[in-house]
């Protein structure tokens, strides 16, 4: 077994820890293996797009989701550290409006699986961070929506003591009561 999978506060959101083989020369690990992923995380997933972002300390990206063409995301950090968050945006779910989060870093190689139907975002904790993620559907800007990162109804506990740097679309995110949600 090359990964250890731990459900987070929302059981569908999973923290994935790969087995890392290291010695004085460096390390090696499988960052993705479809057999392991399907047997331990989510069967039947097909990834269609890989994305890469770089951000400096204090940048908060999110909370993004697509109201049509919902995306599942497998996320990881290849430089630095972030606090990564998922919020359940499915009205019919018993965990609607609840969140789960975890710290991900290049040092620990952990990944997070965010299923379709969840908003996703992260804040950069290190001087800079490079963030990679696979998606199960393509990006459709016309369907992109943004949940307000600090909506008190959701109550995300961000591990920061500063006002984050936000893109205009993220600063204009909707509260959970105003947001367009999944059925």
From TrEMBL:
It holds the Pfam family dTDP_sugar_isom. It catalyses: dTDP-4-dehydro-6-deoxy-alpha-D-glucose = dTDP-4-dehydro-beta-L-rhamnose. It is an enzyme of class 5 (isomerase). GO terms for cellular component: cytosol. The keyword Cell inner membrane does not apply. Pathway: Carbohydrate biosynthesis; dTDP-L-rhamnose biosynthesis. Its EC number is 5.1.3.13. Belongs to the dTDP-4-dehydrorhamnose 3,5-epimerase family. This is dTDP-4-dehydrorhamnose 3,5-epimerase. The lineage of its organism: Bacteria, Pseudomonadati, Pseudomonadota, Betaproteobacteria, Burkholderiales. The gene is rfbC.
């Amino acid at each position: 077994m090359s990964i250890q999978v731990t459900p987070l506060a929302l059981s569908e959101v999973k923290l994935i820890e790969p087995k890392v083989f290291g010695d004085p020369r460096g390390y090696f690990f499988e960052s993705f293996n479809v057999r392991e992923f399907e047997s331990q995380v989510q069967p039947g997933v097909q990834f269609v797009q890989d994305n890469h972002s770089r951000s400096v300390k204090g940048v908060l990206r999110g909370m993004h989701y697509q109201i049509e063409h919902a995306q599942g995301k497998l996320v990881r950090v290849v430089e630095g550290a972030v606090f990564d968050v998922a919020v359940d945006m499915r009205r019919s779910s018993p965990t609607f409006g609840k969140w789960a989060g975890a710290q991900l870093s290049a040092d620990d190689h952990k990944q997070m699986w965010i299923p379709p139907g969840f908003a996703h975002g992260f804040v950069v904790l290190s001087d800079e961070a490079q963030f990679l993620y696979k998606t199960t559907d393509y990006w459709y800007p016309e369907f992109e929506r943004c949940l307000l990162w600090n909506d008190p109804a959701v109550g995300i506990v961000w591990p920061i003591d500063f006002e984050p740097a936000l893109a205009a679309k993220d600063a204009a995110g909707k509260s959970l009561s105003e947001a367009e949600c999944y059925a």
